[in-house]
Amino acid sequence: MENKGTKTLETDRLILRQFREEDAESMFNNWASDSEVTRFLTWQPHSDVNVTRELLKDWIGRYTDLSYYNWVIELKEDHTAIGNISAVKVNEKTEAVDMGYCMGKAWWGKGIMPEALRRIIAFFFEETSVKRVAACHDANNPKSGRVMEKAGMKTEGVFRSAGFNNLGVCDEVWHSIIKSDFLGKTVVRFAEKEELERVNEIRKIVNDVHVMGRPDIFKAGFNDELKNHIYDIWNAENKDIIVAERDGVICGFACVQYVDKPENPFMHERKFCAIEEFCVDEKFRRQGVGREVINFIRQDAKKRGLDRVELNMWEFNEGALAFYEAVGFKTYRRDMELRS
User: Fold this and answer.
1) Which sign does the torsion angle of CA 149, 155, 160, 164 carry?
2) Inter-axis angle of helices 224-235 and 196-213, to 10 degrees?
3) Distance between CA atoms of residues 113 and 147, nearest Å
4) Which of 123, 135, 256, 324 could be cross-linked to 99 through a Cys-Cys bond (beta carbons 3.0 to 4.6 Å apart)?
5) In this predicted structure, what is the pLDDT of residue 248?
6) Per-residue burial over 23-54, b = 16 or more CB atoms within 10 Å of its CB, e = otherwise
7) CA 91 to CA 1: how far, in whole Å?
8) What is the pLDDT of residue 186?
9) What backbone phi and psi angles, to 5 degrees, belong to 132?
10) Which residues does 334 contact at the CB level (< 8 Å), separation at least 6?
11) What pLDDT does 105 receive?
């Protein structure tokens, strides 16, 4: 099984990271000492902060093991540690993980735990060889089950009198998601002309991101010239437009160019595929769509005898950088500036 360890992950509102010793007081105060939080769990509330500190020492010491997955949930807005989510069991043979989580009650009902669980499911399926993510809850705690459902997990069934927690013996309700569920039935192919207007809708997302990141360079508004440029790409002999379709909806695209740079006094001849534009509709992100588009481009480049796929991106677009690195891209050059 390919393990990556407890990597730092982000969502719109959260940072999921390794625990640090200085998290002890926040952990104790925000959730570990609260009997309401631990009611359906298997461990007792911490009696004082020293219990929390000793536990964190053990957890922190295990981060060198890449099969150990244990994140603190931190709010981006004020860097408050509010909860914990971890793989409580890792099965190397079946490439599966069982998840557990808890969070301070001050943050219940805000959609935070489903947000964290969705991000970790995406991490497991996109960056490791995990093929199944599962979790269970006490049948008397249906709110925990709703977290799993909101994260895309399906109910498998009830194991009667199979669990034990602070309330005693309980029925366990199991939920899971497998990699094929996560990836869905995405079809990646070359675009049809009548689909270009839908592609433009997604291109506008890219334009808005660039305008927000560097308004001194990019012009606001998705003007007619930009809209019409998609047809220039369509008509170019050395370019293609690739789309991802799921359930009849175009949910992502890439514009690629096939580049043949002749030898010159400084460089050897280079033939490669350049990704000029790339985006997945926000509603379909973290579902494997982007990875499938990249895989399609990579395989098509091989068929054309091209030995590499290249792209360039803007430094402010940290989410895009994280994605490209996750699918295997490596930085080999940089554009730099010196402002007066």
Assistant:
1) negative
2) 120
3) 7
4) 135
5) 75
6) bbebbbebbbbbeebbebbeeebbeeeebbbe
7) 9
8) 82
9) -150, 135
10) none
11) 97
Distance CA 337, CA 313 (A): 14
What integer pLDDT is reported at residue 59 of this predicted model? 98
- 332-to-240, 262, 285, 329 alpha-carbon distances in Å: 24, 20, 26, 9
What is the chain's length?
340
Q: What are the tokens at 243? A: 């789309």
Both structure tokens of 203: 């291109």
Q: What is the pLDDT of residues 275-315, one digit of tens each?
A: 999 999 998 988 889 999 999 999 999 989 998 999 999 99
Q: Which residues of the chain have pLDDT under 50?
A: none
Interhelix angle for 112-127 vs 142-150, to 10°?
50
Question: In this structure, what token pair is assigned to residue 237?
Answer: 């002999």
Domains of the chain: 9-183 (3.40.630.30), 186-326 (3.40.630.30)
Say how far apart CA 145 and CA 41 lie, in whole Å.
Answer: 14
The predicted pLDDT at position 180 comes to: 82
Residue pointed to by tokens 């160019």: 257
Dihedral sign (CA 74, 75, 76, 79) = negative
